Amino acid sequence: MTESKSDDGSIRRRQPAAGLPRRTWFLVVVAFSAFWVIYMSLLGPRPRAPKLDGSGGGQASYTWTLLDLKDRPVSFALFRGKTVFLNIWATWCPPCLREMPSIARLAEEPRLKDKRIAFVCVATDESSDAVRTFLEGRSWSMSFFRATGVPGAFYSEGVPVTFIIAPDGRIAAVKDGPADWDSPEVIALLEKLAAEAPASP
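The structure corresponding to this sequence follows.
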């Protein structure tokens, strides 16, 4: 409380301006931000089935070096000759996390079993720790890696971005943004591409 002297000599007392301390406002903003991320990850709008017709083009880059979740190098060439469902994502990206269960369901689709189809999820996180933490308690069958860079063939301005790659290396479809991936259309496309693969020796 402060005091001031008026023109007539009387003392007037002023109450301090009401308001929250800066630290309190900061904690409020942090709590709201955390709530919003959790809400969008778990309860936000469900992605729609992707429209993939005419979205492809170009050739995949098999010279890409990935890192497994123990930070050991793995060449993307490991997947050459297979149909590849390639999802580039990040643990800090709510839309990426929302679509991930649909990718897991797609990878478990019985019609796609034993057809040389690889489901590859590459995180752009700076550390593998966040990816391992996210995957704890999840028995998903996709192959998870991390990358410190992305080749031009797979470049996008944001995540998630998904590429469906034919056995001959051509990029058959691309989708920027999240999608509901276990749709009949996606299953049919993967089946069609898998049928193009040469028979295993």
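The chain is about 25% helix and 20% strand.
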